[in-house]
Amino acid sequence: MLHLPSLASTAIYASLLLAHPVLAPGGPATPGPTHSPGPRSQYIGGRSLALVDLEAIPSGWDLWWHFNRAPFVNLKALERTVGFDDGNFCSWYLPGYEEDQREVWIQPGTQQIGTEVIPALLAALQGDPRRGLQGNTLLALAKMSGSEKVSGSCEAAIREHLDSEYQRVSERATLALGILGGEPAANSLEAISAGTGPGKRLVGRAQVPMRTRLSATYGLGLIGAQTADNALRVRLVDHFVEVLRADVPVDEQLMTAAVIALGLTPIDSVGETRRSKRPSASIDAQVTFLLDLLGTPRKRGKSKWSHSKARLHVPGAIARLLSAHPEESDAIRSVAIGILTRGLHPRSHFDNGLKASCALALGQIVDCRGGTTIHKAANAALKAVSTKGDQQTSCFALMAMGQIAARRGPESSSNPIASRKLLMGHLRKQLANAQTQRSSWAALSLGITANTLSATGQETVDIHTLSALRTRAKDVRKPGAIGASLLALGLCKDLDIAGFILDRIRGSKLNRTKGQGLVALGLMDHQLSSDVLQSLMEQWPDQPDKLIPISEYMGMVGDWKVGQGLIHLMGVSSYSIAKYALAHAVGNIEDRNNIRSLISLFGDKGKAQSTRNSAVVALGIACDRTMVPWQQLLSTHINYHALDTFLWNTNQDPCYNTEPGLLNYP
Question: Which of 119, 520, 595, 615 could be cross-linked to 602 through a Cys-Cys bond (beta carbons 3.0 to 4.6 Å apart)?
Fold first, then answer.
């Protein structure tokens, strides 16, 4: 068993306090990567918070993994197999039992959230004016509002802060309404997004600030993604279309928000688009509207958005809508696939950024069915561009091929196995040069194929793929490329090579690779001994790019024993980045026995604001009642090169920046 509190005065505590003098409270978060001094590393928000060196990974397979890892790590689904303590389930557990008598840890239940956590957060909102604490508290309240009894008080508290004098608090209150969901929240957010009179009154300003309008638009997208009310989705789609069709010039970031939100809001009905010109009539009509915005790849300047960054998100929005109903809308699906496929052609007038978006989108809507010309043409185009296109489009195409290989298509489709073998064969060929960017993408893509096939009950990974990945993992020497092979083997659940991965973790000089190797062990459910895990944590005590993989590993294998030690370190550390990493570690573990300690830390007004902030972040993650973190809805399968600074601000410290990117929010 690990006993982290005893380490606070030794290596871990000393390293937390001394390793990064540039990380004093209020200072910039700019630690350089261990493998090369200089390039700036920054936060990516959400449950998978981590440091990523953007300059060192221009094609970013590991950046793709950070944005798309949640469905594979899937901590919520794993932890919910253990159960909740709502006063009935797991009633055998009593606080008087010794810790080592517990067989499993228990998630915070509705009763504990409603009687202990929410009252503490509401009380803090009334008595503490500090804007950072208020903003994080509002988001935490929205995440944990699961029943009508507690949702009412949470919504009232959130609404009270829409007109906060602090812009950051007002923005977070606006987003919190979207996370909370429901028609009343949608009514308010629609007015704020439009910037109309009712919206101005809600935020208490003569004009609704653009950042607040953006928060409201993304919040509406979150509601559209999660509501079961199709009539509400129709209304939301009408709103997004109105923003995109506005005659007066619209802020480009607002157009981007409307495109992404539209893609998150699929209409239930499908049908012939010629029956209605209203985009909210059906998914067919939604996709037709977006295809019109995209324009044609054959004629330069056809789209009025030819030079708009918002246009780069249109293929992704189309793919999300079609993915919502994979067995329907075959006609419009074929039209969309055809246009996106032609967009990859060397003579296409789509620029490289748009081609990369097309490749990503095809990976979500094409399958490996045989005998269908349109799907075969898409696969052929992706294969061609994966070797001859610009580097980013080539890498995205390799990832798309792996996703397609795992998607069988309709039961009536002919010979998907043959198409799958061709796709996977091409990916294996790209492993030959283990030092290239394409090789890393191919390795991770094969791992995702194998993982998805297994998860959907189709087949296990074939011996040729497993052998190729093992060989590549042993041959690769480039530090930034090793982690792709380790994660691929973890996704394949190749337990026979767990010892090799552990050796790679110990031998690597790159922190990111160490963390990726540990996540790989978690993916294959490999249980490290307490001594080994203790040793690793003593080596990597203070940095988020180490702590978060450790927390994800503990969440995947069910290691709840270290929560109190991590909370202790959160309270004594002087460095805000370390505190936020520890907060995500504790939150990911989701043990109800950590809740009271976090409430105590949060309520201690003698603690630094960053400490109290980190405690409320941990509470929000641990008590989140949704299976899918809200950041995942916005970031999965997105062209991260097209993100604007409102969505993802990589140039500021998320702890102290007054204008963080939305995906930097805790």
Answer: 615
